[in-house]
C-alpha cells in the first residue's frame, strides 16, 4: 500500500467501509462521518481513495446524505445499478403506503423527513383507534417487503418497524425505548420517487399527496 493511500485511510477507514457496504451516511446514522464528509478536505481524501476503485461519493437530500456510487459505468456496473434499482422499485408501494399511514396517523402536514422521531406506542394507539388506519396497516404489512402474517396491530407494526430499521430507513437509538428516528435514506427514496415520476409518469407523489388529504376533502 502506498504512503499516500495509507494517509487517506487514517481516520477514515471505517467511513470508507460504510460507504462501500452501501450504507447511507447522514447526521442521524453517523454524525461524525457526516461531519467528516461535509468537510471539503476530508471528503477530497475519501474521494481520492474511492476513485482508485471506480467509486465516488454521491449525495441526496440537497447534499445532506452521502452514499457510494460508481465513477464510470461499464456493463458490470450497469447491471449492479439496475439490480439495486429494481430492488428499490419492488418495495416502493409498501414504503409509500407506510409513509402515508405515518403522516396521516400522526396528523403531520409534511412527509416524514430525516431526524423526525416516531413514538411507536403513540402511533400504535392512533392506528388501533381508527379502523381505516388498521386496514391500511394490515394491507401494507402483508406485502412481501414486510411479510407479516400477524392479524393484530401490535404484531404487524413491530415487524414493519423492525424491517425498516434493517433497511436503513429508521434507526432506534435506545433499545429500551420505543422511539425511532427517520434517517437520510428517506431523502434518497424521495429522489427515486421523483425520478420515476418524471421519467415514467407514475405520479407517485401526487397519489401520496391525494391520500394524505382524504380527510380534508
Gap from first CA to last CA: 64 Å
Query: What are the segments in which pLDDT stays under 50 over at least 5 consecutive residues?
Result: 1-10, 211-217
- Mean pLDDT across all residues, rounded? 85
Record the strand order, biggest sheet. Answer: 3-5-4
Helix content: 55-70%
Description:
It comes from Shewanella frigidimarina. With 217 residues, this protein is mainly alpha-helical. It folds into 2 domains: 2-70, Arc Repressor Mutant, subunit A (Orthogonal Bundle); 76-194, no CATH class. 59% of the residues lie in helices and 10% in strands. It has helices at 3-9, 13-20, 31-38, 40-51, 75-90, 92-106, 120-129, 131-141, 153-167, 185-200, 204-212; strands at residues 55-60, 65-70, 117-119, 170-171, 179-182. Strands 3-5-4 form a 3-stranded antiparallel sheet. The protein is globular, with a radius of gyration of 19 Å.
Quick structural summary:
This is DUF4194 domain-containing protein. With 217 residues, this protein is mainly α.
Keywords:
single chain, 217 residues, mainly alpha, Arc Repressor Mutant, subunit A, 11 helices, disordered C terminus, DUF4194 domain-containing protein
Tell me the layout of helices and strands.
Blueprint: H1 3-9, H2 13-20, H3 31-38, H4 40-51, E1 55-60, E2 65-70, H5 75-90, H6 92-106, E3 117-119, H7 120-129, H8 131-141, H9 153-167, E4 170-171, E5 179-182, H10 185-200, H11 204-212
Antiparallel strand pairs: 1-2, 3-5, 4-5
Helix pairs in contact: 6-8, 6-11, 7-8, 7-9, 8-9
Organism: Shewanella frigidimarina
Protein name: DUF4194 domain-containing protein
